Amino acid sequence: MNDRVLSVVSGSGLTVMVREPPGNRLIDMGGEHDDPVQAAITGEMRLLEWEVRSSAVLLGELLDPEFTEIGASGRLWDRHSLINALTQESDAPPYRITVSEMKGRLLAPGIVHLTYVSDENGRRARRSSIWRRSEQGWRLYFHQGTLLPPQEPMPADLG
């Protein structure tokens, strides 16, 4: 894979890598959250960290009070049920989530749409998130994941 690694976040057995495929350009990573798209990307990446996923307080800071999610399984989640499910998980498994094809667009003042592909140990999903700015900062308002078919291994070069 010839993707350029944009960022890597590690901690508690979790490694998250954001890759930029050749020819794609993400918004400039400039100043500290001056850019709404970068603020949404930062929040999205935080939601993948085990320390955040296991803390009702930290999740509550990032999830909008009106948050809803359509999970990759098709299940509908609200803020309360997602926080309960994530914080009930016992131990942090040593897993790795790779994020690729991250793209963001400002839809309107205070509204950002992100799309990306996640890969967690071969379970790939195309993801879409809508972030909105509130008085408390940027919060995830809506998220949807759609499972992708497993990638077929490249055939061995017989030549």
Question: How would you briefly describe this protein structure?
Answer:
This protein has 159 residues and is an alpha+beta fold. Helix content is 20%, strand content 45%. The protein has four helices and eight strands; from the N terminus they run ββαααββαββββ.
Architecture overview:
- The chain has 159 residues and is an alpha+beta fold.
- It has a single domain, classed as Roll (Nuclear Transport Factor 2, Chain: A), CATH 3.10.450.
- 20% of the residues lie in helices and 45% in strands.
- The protein has 4 helices and 8 strands.
- The protein has helices at 36-46, 50-53, 56-62, 79-88, and strands at 4-11, 14-20, 63-70, 76-78, 96-108, 111-120, 123-134, 137-147.
- It has an 8-stranded mixed β-sheet.
- A hairpin with a 2-residue loop joins strand 1 (4-11) and strand 2.
- Residues 10-14 and 20-33 have low confidence and may be disordered.
- Residues 46-140 form the DUF4440 domain.
- It comes from Thermobispora bispora (strain ATCC 19993 / DSM 43833 / CBS 139.67 / JCM 10125 / KCTC 9307 / NBRC 14880 / R51).
- Pfam families: DUF4440.
Set down the secondary structure blueprint:
Blueprint lengths: L3 E8 L2 E7 L15 H11 L3 H4 L2 H7 E8 L5 E3 H10 L7 E13 L2 E10 L2 E12 L2 E11 L12
Parallel strand pairs: 2-5, 3-8
Antiparallel strand pairs: 1-2, 3-4, 5-6, 6-7, 7-8
InterPro entries: DUF4440, NTF2-like_dom_sf
Protein name: DUF4440 domain-containing protein
Pfam family, one: DUF4440
Shape: globular
Count, helices: 4
- Stated plainly, the CATH topology is called Nuclear Transport Factor 2, Chain: A
Helix content: 10-25%
Relative strand content = over 45%
Task: Strand order, main sheet: write it out.
Answer: 1-2-5-6-7-8-3-4
Mean of residue pLDDT values: 81
Question: Which structural class fits the helix and strand makeup?
Answer: alpha+beta
What is the strand tally? 8
- How many domain regions? 1
What's the main sheet like? 8 strands, mixed
What string gives the helices and strands in order?
A: EEHHHEEHEEEE
